[in-house]
Design a protein that fits this description.
359 residues; 15 helices; 0% strand; globular
């Protein structure tokens, strides 16, 4: 008589993941759009697309970034020996099903809808009375009567350091555009990228709330003499333009293209970069988070040094980032992230066989 090995009980086929996270993301977008429309009616100013074609330009640039990253990702995923154009394109077609494409495209679009609403709500903060004096007093109290910007100017100088910090500050826009697209291209599942999209959306939502909580323009406006020794750069030019645009907006809010783009509390440059740092921890990206630690710290210095923000604005930015990531993870249901999920069959086999011997 032969003994048969006991059969394992039949397992149910895997059920498709729920779509609650997707519904939650779009509920967030729709709610923020509704809030923006209500506020638009209250102030009597219609929604505007900054620059006349801002939204279309963002979608177009994101499409280009998407194509580059998707192709590079497919090339990386293709087995060695087959990484020619044909092999890469075959991997690309296999990875990007119509469903995945729709999820990625709509996710990025939803993010930019939130950002467009944020830009309009930020513009209408101009109707509030600035409270820069309060923020200035807080800074002086924190730094024992000294100006944090003045201390940085004395410590770092006002020539070479200024240009370096301007370069870091101006790289912000490119960084966030690439990060948003990379979030839906690089992970195994698009849902994992929605954690970053949701967190980024929450940054803009919480950020504009902080603008209304403490309306302000920034030290470059309230203490211009403090920054008179800085060289004339793209930042100083932008600051002058923002103040002129704000004055034009207040003079005639209904004028076509009228928009105010200046607000200080809290610093969303700091909030967004800090959010990306926390996302690097969330996704288990060790090298990225080392780079982002340095980038966040340099950005915090740049915002104060260049006069965009008070030091307390940066503190508020960090708090906004932490809360935004918590809300972003809650919105998407905290999916399994790279490095934290189950091992793939190939990696399991490698562990069973042991490490390969080097020759």
């Amino acid at each position: 008589m032969t003994l048969e090995a006991p059969r394992s009980p039949p397992t149910d086929p895997p059920r498709p993941a729920g779509r609650g996270w997707l519904v939650a993301f779009w509920a967030l977008v729709a709610t923020f759009v509704l809030v923006t429309l209500v506020r638009s009616a209250q102030v009597g100013v219609p929604l505007r697309d900054p620059g006349g074609a801002w939204f279309a330009a963002r979608i177009a640039s994101s499409t280009v970034v998407f194509a580059v990253l998707a192709l590079a990702d497919a090339h990386h995923r293709t087995e060695r020996g087959h990484r020619d154009l044909r092999g890469t394109l075959a991997t690309l077609r296999g990875r990007w099903s119509p469903r995945r494409l729709v999820l990625a495209a709509t996710g990025v679009t939803g993010y930019y809808v939130v950002y467009a609403c944020y830009r309009n709500l930020k513009s209408w903060v101009a109707f509030q009375e600035p409270q820069d004096g309060t923020l200035l007093a807080w800074d002086r109290w924190l730094f024992l009567g000294h100006s944090p910007a003045g201390l940085l100017h004395d410590l770092l100088g006002v020539q070479v350091s200024a240009y370096v910090l301007v370069a870091v500050y101006e790289s912000f826009s490119t960084l966030i555009r690439v990060a948003v697209v990379a979030a839906v291209v690089l992970p195994e599942r698009v849902r994992e990228g929605y954690v970053l999209l949701s967190s980024a959306a929450w940054v803009w939502i919480l950020g504009v709330c902080s603008y209304y909580l403490v309306p302000s323009l920034g030290p470059f406006s309230s203490e211009p003499a403090q920054f008179a020794d800085l060289p004339d750069t793209v930042v100083t030019e932008t600051q002058r333009r923002f103040l002129a645009e704000r004055a034009d907006f207040l003079a005639d809010p209904g004028a076509p293209g009228a928009l105010s783009q200046v607000a200080a509390f809290g610093s969303l440059h700091v909030a967004v970069t800090c959010m990306l740092l926390l996302m690097a921890y969330h996704y288990g990206l060790r090298r990225t988070r080392r780079v982002m630690v340095a980038f966040v710290l340099t950005t915090m210095v740049a915002t104060v040094y260049l006069g965009w923000h008070f030091a307390v604005d940066d503190v508020a930015g960090v708090l906004i980032a932490v809360v935004a990531v918590l809300l972003g993870r809650a919105t998407t249901g905290k999916p399994v992230t790279p490095g934290r999920g189950r091992a793939s069959p190939s990696s399991s086999r490698r562990r069973r066989r042991g490490p390969r011997r080097s020759r």
